[in-house]
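Lab notebook, page 48
Experiment: co-folding of the full assembly
Goal: obtain a model of how the components sit together before planning crosslinking
Operator: M.T.
Materials (sequences as entered):
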Amino acid sequence: MGLKLLGQDITRVKIIDDDPTAREAMAFTVTDANLEPLPDDGPLPRLKRFVVLSKQSVDAVICDHRLKGQYASFSGAEAVAELYKAACPSVLCTRWSVADIDAIRQYIRFIPALISSDDVNPDTITNGLARCVQEFKSEPASSRKPWRTLVRVESVERSLKPALFYVAVPGWDSKEIIRLPLEIVPGYRRRQIKPGLRFFAKVNKGADRAEALFFTDFEFPAKRK
Amino acid sequence: MNLRRARSPEERPSTNTSIGRVSTFEASGRLAQKTDRSGFIENDAFLELKRFANDALEWMARCRMKEAEKRRASERVEAPKRTVKAKLEIKEAIDKVPGPKRRAIKQAFEKYEVVREKELKTLRKEVQLYRTLSTAGITAATFAHESAGNPIKAIDQAAKSIQRRGEREFASKYAEVLAEPVDLILRSTGALKVLGNVTFSLLDHEKRRASQVEIHERIASVIQTFGPFLQERAVEIVMDFAPGNPYLRGSKAAVESVITNFLNNSLVWFEQVHAKGSKIAIRTEISNGNLRLRFADNGPGIKGIDPDDVWLPGETTRENGTGLGLTIVHDAVKDLGGSVKAVAHGDLGGAEFIVDVPILGK
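Observation: model returned without errors.
Model output:
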């Protein structure tokens, strides 16, 4: 049992899901991928501690995005992003609903393996873990490589929860409008977001769909004096 | 804030009303005014202060809402009393009218009362229906979330695992013994997922935003969401779209609710009368800045009700039907600036609905 992905041994895989039945079902798939499943019954410790313990006890983590409060004090996206920063290969499972994407968007930069709940199978898990290892060892795949590019704000919806803004990234696709939560912009800059505003950000222009785009390193035009 | 006031004036006072003041005494310079004369102070201390002010406004909005609710409750109690009093006054006034005219006015007033009572009864029925449907909608949304997230996911993964292990361990024997029931489980979970996906898709608030809506894309998207369900029920869908990409200004939700309600309507009738061979045809034609959408099925057609009356709320010929689906279609089409009519037996022999909406371009 176990896999060697780009020279890294992966055998023990922690399964994070607040539903015991879902954990059990995921364990079947992990076993079918020739890996050893370790479902975590929770409640999980605080995020920092969770990351440290995971690094010590397992080789990889598979995590559902929506985790109920009694099970974890953080979302799956937060967990996977922190695990990534600690170089622990992790896969995030989500239903790809619009609300999920809004919540995940600010973490996508640190989530190389984001798979739909419908697509969970031994191959997608193995490929996802391999993508993580590749990013740790060399550079990201072309679909994940950030490029400095122009972003244009189309409209803003501040009264929604979460507040949203819609942008076009001509360097990626001039026609498609992308919906982003306002919280991905640094707090003191949010007031500046208005229709027609153009700014630079680092965006993975090789992404094949809008949901996989991440935005970092915002550069806003200097205000007029 | 102005936008939020406009959306709920009852909870938030207008711009002309002073609603309070936040005074701060701060000597350590953490709220130093900016010197570039643009915008507000941009630091954490100011943002915290702003959050405080927003929270205070939220609190006030909740208090005002409670007061408004109390007022409405007392109005609900007072209104019938006022009606009785007004009626008495009218009757007294009629009694003062001289002889022959009095009788005619009395009869006319009694007739008015009967009509008014009927109207009230219909309105009460409609309110009750909307409440019931809202509850059903909320329950469906909760169920959709729970089922899509957990049991369906678990059944799907477990069945796929049986499939993988069976193929590996039993080779050809698997295909002979297990493949069929496992495939059935996987097809059925696919159809079940549709219920959750449709509910989630309808709830997406972004779809209620006014924007440019590409009609063909929306129709195809609804059909795709229903896909596994339609496949499982062997419903053949024929889409014959006019060339081009017609679009209008409206909400995606309006266009989707038209198609979704037509689909629901057809599916329910298929369930009751068809064993197999169900067919739906969706066609579009464009002429003179107008898009004509024809939605036809080969169900039983419209029976027992005048096709012009299918749009009325509560009108249904189906047991346990809500009689609201087509009313929603009618309202949604009206919102899009168009019109809709029903044909009892259309091109495919079953009901056909013809929607005309103005488009901005193609």
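Interpretation: The CA atoms of residues 186 and 218 of chain A lie 8 Å apart.
Next step: discuss with group before ordering constructs.
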